[in-house]
Write a structure and sequence with these properties.
heterodimer, A: 658 residues, Flavocytochrome C3, Chain A, domain 1, Methane Monooxygenase Hydroxylase, Chain G, domain 1, 37% helix, B: 247 residues, alpha+beta, Fumarate Reductase Iron-sulfur Protein, Chain B, domain 2, 2 domains, 8 helices, 7 strands, FAD-dep_OxRdtase_2_FAD-bd (chain A), electron transport (chain A), steroid dehydrogenase activity, acting on the CH-CH group of donors (chain A), cell membrane (chain A), oxidoreductase (chain A)
């Protein structure tokens, strides 16, 4: 890419080279419905007697990691598992509300594996790999069986059978749920299965221990460097394969619906050690979150988008109209979604609803503190259905809203605003979920595998559990069988010594600066920059501005950061600061990826690439590929490797919701 | 708002702890309690002091990490998690005491952070259904009557925060343990391990140093998820039934 701005650090960064394409060598050919069987048959197996000699490290205990750790241990492998939380039960999968999709067709409403596959490829705006998505749809059916057997208390009908609902605008009812706490219940199922294996001595669990680097020996992932968050001790752990199930990187934006401590360090350190990072700019921004109330805001809370089924979204027609919402007469309100998208109205997809909210707020018509909000009004629904019916349907969400905002949504319209919610991008993986570093696997939100440029509702839980229970435990066998346990690698290996030294130096440097700015102040700054320029709508000029600014923030960070205490103790400021070091590099790659992808697709909207009526214009002729980036050094231009996407079964079409 | 905070400070598990007093100013009503502590910590860092350590993560009331005793009450004056408590529950000029969970089975790690791994070991002792991946029958093979499913869900809502233990005058973990026993024991899938589950989990609970239950009921009052007190009596029934069978 040629850069037009004067020579700065960012110009050098944008001057990337295009390397050899990446090819998924593991995806079988042949009819798509047979590929997963084919791969499982072709994969080599490890003799049960040999499994206990092989160790697998699993980082993270969410749906993907918890399921994988339990399943690998059941198979007879020795598992060493890590989470930064005080208990594996607290991973952020726990906060997922809506549900989990599965092509059970219990409703006899025309659902099938193929339809779930089709919906997911289309919903991903044709930027996902067909083979992977089809497998996900196939496996979805087994997930429900597995979870029910574990005692997950899904919602049931009076006849005792499982209830389902339709979700995220699809026309079939394929979403299984446990009230508004589906993620919690699925996670506890995985946690309990994992606990059984911990008790049996098959899983060595390290809670409050955070992975800080990957150890690569002779080109293969052989271990990790991790810090005991209580004592500060930095240790090395070795294995025959390493699995990253460390979640997404939405916290780059500071404010998101992620947990406070969700972070990108495990995947970013793996990236620095050779794992390609794919489609980092694909982030999902959810339209129905509770707006921020002020500078002190530390995180954002999502409300289920089912609210859009009955609520009407509007803002005042006039800029800066400060009247109370009930004092604004009907003809001075702009129900903008209904106006712009008459056929879909308030039910347009997540990205469109989010962008439209941003547009009206940018025009100065936003409501609430700072003008960063739009109304979601239930007055008509209450008049039509009665307050009782609204309460029955949305009562828990209304209560949650009232608790946080101290406003009664039955009387006053809710205020909502979009927030970062999920990252579709992640470590590049092949069909086996293996990264470009042999022996390093990535599962769940940590990989880029299944959602393309946009994820459908209730599909994150499906993917996490599919990867953890069924896909990885099958595919990792092949790697372990082909790389039988041989040489013991220990803490004295030069690669391990070097990785530990680098980690120790990084932490020591953070502690030594003794500047005048807190870790949070830098996190907030980079987050605001990303939200502004790499958020809901992106432009060439804006992204270049961000790319020029990020190295400056990084430089300032290393000059002014203040981390109290020492490294040899429980030190939450040090944990935070160290995560920000990685955000300051990842943010740069996200902006570059967004800059290079001069098309709009899914959650990635480039203002330059719109149709005549202002809708996202995808450019298949130039961008029908996954962008896998190779790290070459901090602030150095990464190398781009393209994986061409081939659509044999779902023909790419342009979305339209007008 | 301007507030006086009296916070438990303890360098590590082995150190002596004490209450320290801090003034915070400019606290907004809309802040969550943890955002108020963030504000305190930002100023402590800048003045070169060690910020107050506390556990927190999702800040949506579901992960169960946050764990503060506020003015003597687990999770403070409202029936919710600390992260969902807002400063509008307090008034300008208030003095607020902030302490960690107090229970001998939950040793302090640092300041307001405690070690709740005893809960994990109770689950490990039997809080699961043995169903190895791949072995599951078709989900609709066994219908579960809706009342049983709803009962299971009601108990499965426990977030493992430990407020029940902190609130109990005896430091008992009966509500936590009974929630999991009842969740799994009522389901047909949980029936084969029904007896061993309750005996093993109660045995583990006792060995962790939690106190005995005198049905004071403080646990159910403090529980942010509304696990009912009858959960305990119901588990006692399960226990007696299993103990008799075992003989």
């Amino acid at each position: 890419m040629t850069a037009s701005t004067p020579h700065t650090a960012s110009t050098a960064y944008t001057d990337y080279a295009t390397g050899a394409p990446v090819v998924d060598t593991k995806a079988p050919q042949g009819p798509i419905a047979e590929r997963w069987d084919t791969r499982r048959f072709e994969a080599k197996l490890v003799n049960p007697a040999n499994r206990r000699k092989q160790t697998v490290i699993v980082v993270g205990t969410g749906l993907a990691g918890g399921a994988a750790g339990a399943t690998l241990a059941e198979q007879g492998y020795r598992v060493v598992q890590f989470c930064y939380q005080d208990s594996p039960r607290r991973a952020h999968s726990i906060a997922a509300q809506g549900g989990i999709n599965a092509a059970k067709n219990y409703r006899n409403d025309g659902d099938s594996v193929h339809r779930l596959f089709y919906d997911t490829v289309k919903g991903g705006d044709f930027r996902a790999r067909e083979s992977n998505v089809h497998r996900l749809a196939q496996v979805s059916v087994e997930i429900i069986d597995q979870c029910v057997a574990q005692g997950v208390p899904f919602a049931r009908e009076y006849g005792g059978l499982l209830d389902t609902r339709s979700f995220g605008g699809v026309q079939v009812s394929r979403t299984f749920y446990a009230r508004g706490q589906t993620g919690q219940q699925l996670l506890l199922g995985a946690y309990q299965a994992l606990s059984r294996q911990i008790a049996a001595g098959n899983v060595e669990m390290h809670p409050r221990t955070e992975m800080l680097d990957l150890i690569v020996v002779d080109g293969r992932a052989r271990g990790i460097v991790a810090r005991d968050l209580v004592t500060g001790r930095i240790g090395t752990y070795f294995a025959d394969a390493v699995v990253l199930a460390s979640g997404g990187y939405g916290n780059v934006f500071y404010l998101s619906t992620n947990a406070m401590n969700s972070n990108a360090t495990a995947v970013w350190r793996a990236h620095r050690r050779g794992a390609y990072f794919a489609n980092p700019c694909f982030t999902q921004i959810h339209p129905t979150c509770i707006p921020r109330t002020g500078e002190h805001q530390s995180k954002l809370t999502l409300m289920s988008e089912s609210l859009r089924n009955d609520g009407r979204i509007w803002v005042p027609k006039a800029k800066g109209d400060a009247r109370a919402p009930r004092d604004i007469p009907e003809d001075e309100r702009d129900y903008y979604l209904e106006r712009i998208y008459p056929s879909f109205g308030n039910l347009v997809p997540r990205d469109i609803a989010s962008r439209a909210a941003k547009n009206v707020c940018d025009e100065g018509r936003g409501v609430g503190p700072g003008g960063q909000g739009v109304y979601l009004d239930f007055a008509d629904a209450i008049a039509r259905m009665g307050r009782k019916a609204v309460e029955a349907k949305y009562g828990n969400l209304f209560d949650m809203y009232a608790r946080i905002t101290d406003e009664d949504p039955y009387e006053v319209p809710m205020r909502i605003y979009p927030a970062v919610h999920y990252t579709m991008g992640g470590l590049w993986v092949d069909y086996d979920l293996q990264t470009t570093v042999p022996g390093l696997f990535a599962i769940g939100e940590a990989n880029f595998s299944d959602h393309g440029a946009n994820r459908l509702g209730a599909s994150a839980l499906m993917q996490g559990l599919a990867d953890g229970y069924f896909v990885l435990p099958s595919t990792i066998n092949d790697y372990l069988a082909r790389n039988p346990h041989k040489d013991e690698v220990g803490g004295d290996h030069p690669e391990a010594v070097a990785a530990v030294r680098e980690t120790e130096e990084r932490l020591a440097r953070l502690l030594a600066v003794d500047g005048d700015r807190t870790p949070d102040s830098f996190h907030r700054e980079i987050g605001e920059l990303m939200w502004e320029y790499c958020g809901m709508a992106r432009t060439d000029a804006g992204l270049r501005k961000a790319l020029a600014r990020i190295p400056e923030i990084r430089e300032e960070f290393w000059r002014r950061i203040k981390v109290p205490g020492t490294g040899e103790e429980f030190n939450q400021s040090l944990e935070k600061a160290n995560r920000i070091v990685d955000y300051l590099e990842l943010a740069e790659l996200m902006c570059l990826d967004a800059l290079h992808r001069a098309e709009s697709c899914g959650g990635h909207f480039r203002e330059e690439s719109q149709t005549a009526d202002g809708e996202a214009a995808r450019r298949d002729e130039a961008f029908s590929y996954a962008a896998a980036w190779e790290f070459t050094g901090t602030g150095e231009a990464p190398a781009l490797h393209k994986e061409d996407l081939v659509f044999e079964y779902v023909h790419p079409t342009q979305r339209s919701y007008a | 708002m301007k507030l006086t905070l009296r916070v438990w400070r303890q360098k590590n598990a082995g150190a002596e702890g004490a209450m320290s007093t801090y003034e915070v100013d400019g606290i907004a009503k809309d802040m969550s309690f943890l955002e108020m502590l963030d504000t305190l910590n930002e100023s402590l860092i800048l003045s070169g002091e060690d910020p107050v350590a506390f556990d927190h993560d999702c800040r949506e009331g579901i992960c169960g990490a946050c764990s503060l005793v506020i003015n003597g009450e687990a999770h403070g004056p409202e029936r919710t998690t600390t992260c969902q408590l807002h400063m509008r529950s307090f008034s300008d000029g208030d003095t607020i005491d902030i302490e960690p969970w107090r229970a001998s089975a939950f040793p302090v790690v640092k300041d307001l952070v405690v070690d709740r791994s005893a809960f994990d070991r109770i689950i490990e002792s039997g809080g699961y259904i043995t169903a190895p991946t791949g072995s599951a029958p078709e989900a609709h093979a066994t219908a579960v009557p809706k009342p049983a499913a709803d009962f299971a869900f009601e108990h499965a809502e426990c977030i493992g925060c430990g407020a029940c233990v902190a609130a109990c005058p005896n430091g008992s973990a009966m509500l936590f343990t009974s929630a999991k026993v009842n969740h799994l024991n009522v389901l047909p899938q949980g029936a084969p391990e029904r007896g061993s589950r309750v005996l093993d989990m109660v045995g583990q609970m006792d060995s962790e140093g939690f106190g005995g239950c005198t049905l004071a009921g403080e646990c159910a009052t403090a529980c942010p998820k509304g696990i009912p007190l009858f959960s305990i009596t119901r588990m006692n029934r399960e226990f007696v039934r299993a103990a008799r069978k075992r003989g």
